[in-house]
Amino acid sequence: MPRTMTAAPPERARFAFPRSGRFLFWGGMAVLALLLVQAARETQVSPANLLSGAGRIVDIVRRACPPDWHQLPREWKPARETFNIALVGTALGALLACPLALLSSRTIVRHAPVRMAARCVVGLLRAVPDLVWALIFVTAVGLGPFPGVLSLTLHTAGMLGRLGAEMIEDMDVMPMEAMELAGANRLQIFAHGVVPMLAPSMFGLVLYRFDENLRSSLVLGFVGAGGLGFQLYTAISLFQYRTASLLLLMTLVMVIAVEGLSSVMRRHLS
């Protein structure tokens, strides 16, 4: 009976760095490791200090439990204030981001000086953290929620303006070119070509930014921008840890609720 010969399976091709590539790779990893060690030393990273402070951390947690539920009726107003700061700041920032995104896009604006000026404004709004904006506005207009709204408005406008400009430049331009060949003017192209393609994605970005702003509005209260953050800073300063744990729990519930709602809405949009 003839013996059937089975072909041996081909050997898998092995990928190997060239010698110069291996040298660069391991040299880069060594430099990165040295930088990491130096950074840890300069930032005083010390597991020993963390272990020595573990007892104090446990003591603070013990003193913070259970939350002071008697303070709950009094803290509803700061909780609403935190939510409103994030909501109004996100809405105003999104409105301001729309013209900035259009002016920053090469697809819409052909004049380089106008485009570069808009990109500089967007870059400035993004580069300055919202906490720094809050410090500036607290100094300018005083304590309260209004500085928080202004700081979130500017930072949101910078972030959404940048992302919106990138979305405009990445979208398919063939429908707009077809509308232009059919005789549509720029306003008609924008209303019937740009807006329908960008609106769902842009609205999803606004929802995501609202999630971020809700967390940021808590931190802004530490510099006097109102809301739960200001109450939390006061409670910690006065060693009222049970009140502080209540405020943190309220923040957690609010963030989880908003995250769940926005994720459902983003899923429907996609």
UniProtKB/TrEMBL annotation:
Where does it mainly reside? membrane
The record's subcellular location field reads: Cell membrane
InterPro entries linked:
MetI-like, MetI-like_sf, PhnE/PtxC
- Limits of the ABC transmembrane type-1 domain: 79-262
Q: Which GO terms describe its cellular component?
A: plasma membrane
Q: How is this protein positioned relative to the membrane?
A: Multi-pass membrane protein
Matching entries from PROSITE patterns are given as: ABC_TM1 (PS50928)
**Transmembrane portions of the chain:** 83-103, 124-146, 189-210, 217-239, 245-265
Molecular function via GO: ABC-type phosphonate transporter activity
Annotated CDD domains = TM_PBP2
Can you tell me which family this protein belongs to?
Answer: Belongs to the binding-protein-dependent transport system permease family.
Q: Which PANTHER family match?
A: ABC TRANSPORT SYSTEM PERMEASE PROTEIN P69, PHOSPHONATES TRANSPORT SYSTEM PERMEASE PROTEIN
This one is known as Phosphonate transport system permease protein
Q: Which organism is it from?
A: Gluconacetobacter liquefaciens (Acetobacter liquefaciens)
